[in-house]
Amino acid sequence: MTSPGCPFCQIAAARVPDARVVYEDQHTIAFFPDRPATRGHTLVVPKRHAPSVWDLTPEEGGQLARTVLLVADAVREAVHPDGMNIVQSNGAVATQTVEHVHVHVVPRTRRDRVTLRWPRRAAESGVALDETRRAVAARVGLQSGSAAPQTHSRGPDTISPEDRRQHLEFIQSTITRMSTASANVKTWLLPIVTAAYGYAAIQRSWGVAALGAAAVMIFAVLDANYLKQEQAFRRLYDCVAAGDPIPQFAMNPTLAAPTGARRDYWPGWDQFRSWSIALVHGPMLSIGLALVVWGLVTSSR
Predict the structure, then answer these.
(1) Spatial CA neighbour of 29 closest among 14, 51, 40
(2) Are 176 and 291 part of one and the same domain?
(3) Of the candidates 107, 103, 102, which has an alpha carbon nearest to the alpha carbon of residue 73?
(4) How many CB atoms lie within 10 A of CB 66?
(5) CATH code of the domain containing 86
(6) Domain for residue 60, yes or no?
(7) Contact (Cβ atoms closer than 8 angstroms) between residue 254 and residue 261
(8) Domain identity same for 191 and 99
(9) Which terminus of the chain, N or C, has fewer Cβ atoms within 10 Å?
(10) pLDDT of residue 260
């Protein structure tokens, strides 16, 4: 059933020739909005007109959820976001603007302009929070402590223990190489910096000190890059060891990223702030900058 004035029903009925449809089945359809908030922003809607989530049948809800998962995976593979929001709103107060239930699949990047912020102060706590929990639990037919948590898997575990062991060995060998490369960076940097800073101190050469400081920054980026790769492969190792649905012998660490990860490994602030980077390269850079300032001051006298 469609609603004549509903724009989403018109798209579902193939009455909008320029609609940017990315997926369609018997029950649902996914398409790009006219004004996407981010690259890859997609709407997923049921074909039957339903003003809100409360108007869906359980079967329709399941069909909608399956399509959302399918589209989210596809968008993640296509645009490689840093994260993703799955947003579903009901009612004007919740910012619903089209009265046809729909789900926003919104890929996120660190520099996008989307703002979805929760208030810092809790709406309720303590006794009030417990009362609300009991009220909700009673209405979904649950009693406190009576239902055991269920775990769900997106695919059967068909990998043999021996194959998993070999897979883990392959990943561990990569982790070891990254760790060794990081240690080598520090080993190579030390004599370079010692020679540059020593010469700069003796000759009062701010230029040589600046070259030494630049070397520290370059090697710090290399070191942080190796650290980021090591962390990514450690996540992959943990997922394979836990039996998560990782393809057999896959060596792509983005498969273990919980919210989608970039395919490159450009280091971020988390790596630069780590003790293995900040406590090693930070003091050497500070010494170099101090020598530059000292050289400039003494050479001007």
Answers:
(1) 14
(2) yes
(3) 107
(4) 14
(5) 3.30.428.10
(6) yes
(7) yes
(8) no
(9) C
(10) 44
In the chain, the number of structural domains is 2
Tokens of 283: 């003091």
Q: Token pair of 240, please? A: 């394979």
* pLDDT tens per residue, range 103-138: 999 999 988 989 888 787 788 777 777 778 878 887
Comparing CA positions, the residue from 276, 295, 281 lying closest to residue 215 is 281
Task: Please tell me the pTM assigned to this model.
Answer: 0.48
The pLDDT of residue 244 is 78
Any idea what the Cα angle at residue 271 is, between residues 268 and 276, rounded to 5°? 160
Task: Say whether both 275 and 167 belong to one domain.
Answer: yes
Q: What is the DSSP letter of 205?
A: -
What does the pLDDT look like over 200-232, one tens digit per residue? 999 889 999 999 999 999 999 999 999 988 988
Single-letter amino acid code for the residue at 106: V
- For residue 232, the enclosing domain spans 161-299
Residue 144: per-residue pLDDT: 43
State how far the Cα of 245 lies from the Cα of 78, in Å rounded to an integer: 20
User: CB of 178 within 8 A of CB of 237?
Assistant: no
If one compares 158 and 17, the residue with the highest pLDDT of the two is 17
Q: Tell me the catalytic residues.
A: 102
